[in-house]
Write a structure and sequence with these properties.
The protein is mainly alpha-helical. Helix content is 50%, strand content 12%. Strand 4 and strand 5 form a beta hairpin.
Length: 153
């Protein structure tokens, strides 16, 4: 799935939240104790057929994490680590305008590459930028709080 054909996630409805909570609890009990375990998971279909499916423990943990988020009423999107996003997708992720994202790219604050006339940002670079931006904002807030303390405000 490419970044351009992903649809925005929709929050789960109340029935889906209930189902996700229960499924997450049940699936979490099936997580292997050893991370290197390759024991297959047995699924039973509605018509009582048994299917053996070998699901890697990491994928099973990811599925439990997704169900946990859905069970808390949150929408979930999976993005491959090497995915490239459009400037609009980056803006949606950061909750800012697309022109602001273009400005970040033009100021070399956010790495991007051109594909024809369009810019693409790797998800990895976006996460790195977001983490650094949050640290910078947190440091600025801490500095303001320190100044307020000194001034007795």
């Amino acid at each position: 799935m490419t970044a351009t054909n992903r649809r925005p996630p929709h929050p789960p409805n109340p029935d889906e939240i209930t189902q996700a909570r229960e499924a997450g609890r049940q699936l979490a009990r099936l997580l292997p104790d050893e991370p290197d375990s390759t024991q297959p998971l047995r699924l039973v279909t509605d018509d009582n057929r048994h299917e053996m499916i070998a699901i890697p423990p990491g994928a099973l943990r990811l599925f439990v994490d997704v169900l946990t988020q859905l069970g808390q009423g949150r929408a979930v999107t999976l993005v491959p680590q090497r995915a490239e996003l459009t400037t609009q997708e980056v803006a949606d992720y950061l909750n800012v305008s697309r022109p602001y994202v273009v400005g970040l790219i033009e100021q070399n604050k956010l790495p991007a590459r051109k594909v024809g006339t369009r810019r693409r940002v790797t998800f990895e670079d976006l996460v790195r930028f977001d983490e650094q931006d949050r640290k910078t904002r947190r440091a600025a807030l801490d500095e303001l709080a320190r100044i307020d303390q000194e001034l007795g405000l």
